[in-house]
From TrEMBL:
<dbReference type="Pfam" id="PF00929">
    <property type="entry name" value="RNase_T"/>
</dbReference>
<dbReference type="GO" id="GO:0003676">
    <property type="term" value="F:nucleic acid binding"/>
</dbReference>
<dbReference type="InterPro" id="IPR013520">
    <property type="entry name" value="Ribonucl_H"/>
</dbReference>
<dbReference type="InterPro" id="IPR051274">
    <property type="entry name" value="3-5_Exoribonuclease"/>
</dbReference>
<keyword id="KW-0269">Exonuclease</keyword>
<protein>
    <submittedName>
        <fullName>Exonuclease</fullName>
    </submittedName>
</protein>
<dbReference type="InterPro" id="IPR012337">
    <property type="entry name" value="RNaseH-like_sf"/>
</dbReference>
<feature type="domain" description="Exonuclease">
    <location>
        <begin position="3"/>
        <end position="182"/>
    </location>
</feature>
<dbReference type="InterPro" id="IPR047201">
    <property type="entry name" value="ERI-1_3'hExo-like"/>
</dbReference>
<dbReference type="InterPro" id="IPR036397">
    <property type="entry name" value="RNaseH_sf"/>
</dbReference>
<keyword id="KW-0378">Hydrolase</keyword>
<dbReference type="GO" id="GO:0000175">
    <property type="term" value="F:3'-5'-RNA exonuclease activity"/>
</dbReference>
<keyword id="KW-0540">Nuclease</keyword>
Length: 220
């Protein structure tokens, strides 16, 4: 039986979007089927020491709650990724996250550190899957907070903390699992992957990046 890895990444907040933001936290929930029921079986969390800009930007801690001391004592990205891969284990697995940006960030960080992408396989965008189930216009994606509201589920924990976001994403995954078809793929075989992070301008209060947009002076 496959394992389902529901994960989330947190990044350093940067103003210049052409610069890759360092991953500073990896959080994940492991789910497996037991007696025909999908259950959460394990949790992974690791802070990550930035690779390019060692000092956190002033916006990062207010947005994520992650402190300079936490990343200073954290493993490097290659070390944290190795621990994550070992935690995933040897069984066949699907990697699932809310949106496509976490996949893009993993690809860019692995390329920067010259790490094989073979492990980045069977990635599924749960935000797209949920949006397709709940509205006809797939271009306007549903944010995680709104998805939970539609399912009448509370957000547990703190937003923009990797493990908490992964846990709440896993709750959404659990609710839609019977109604979606997961895809198989491998990032090592993908063509050049391009993703653009779009920040809310305040029109969607449930957009996961609306708070960040406000902090950066982008809200109208």
């Amino acid at each position: 039986m496959p394992t389902y890895i529901i994960f989330d990444l947190e990044f350093m907040v940067v103003r210049k979007h052409q610069h890759l933001a360092d991953i500073i936290e990896i959080g994940a929930i492991k789910m497996t089927e037991q007696e025909g029921t999908l259950v959460m079986t394990d949790v992974f969390q690791s802070y990550v020491k930035p690779s390019r800009q060692y000092k956190l930007t002033p916006e990062t801690t207010p947005f994520t709650g992650i402190t300079q001391d936490q990343v200073d004592q954290a493993p490097s990205f290659p070390e944290a990724l190795k621990a994550f891969q070992e935690w995933i284990g040897e069984a066949p697995y699907y990697l699932c996250a809310w949106g496509m940006d976490d996949k893009y960030q993993f690809i860019q960080h692995c390329r920067y550190h010259q790490i094989s992408l073979d492990w980045l396989q069977n990635y599924n965008d749960l935000q797209l899957a949920f949006t397709r189930l709940h509205q006809s216009d797939h271009r306007q994606r549903i944010g995680l907070k709104r998805a939970l509201d539609l399912l009448q589920l509370p957000f547990i924990g703190e937003p923009h903390r990797a493990t908490d976001d992964a846990y709440n994403t896993a709750k959404v995954f659990l609710s839609i699992f019977p109604n979606i078809q997961l895809v198989t793929n491998n990032a090592a075989e993908d063509q050049l992957y391009v993703s653009e992070m779009v920040y809310s301008t305040g029109s969607e209060e449930n957009h996961p990046f609306s708070k960040l947009a406000e902090m950066l002076g982008m809200a109208q």
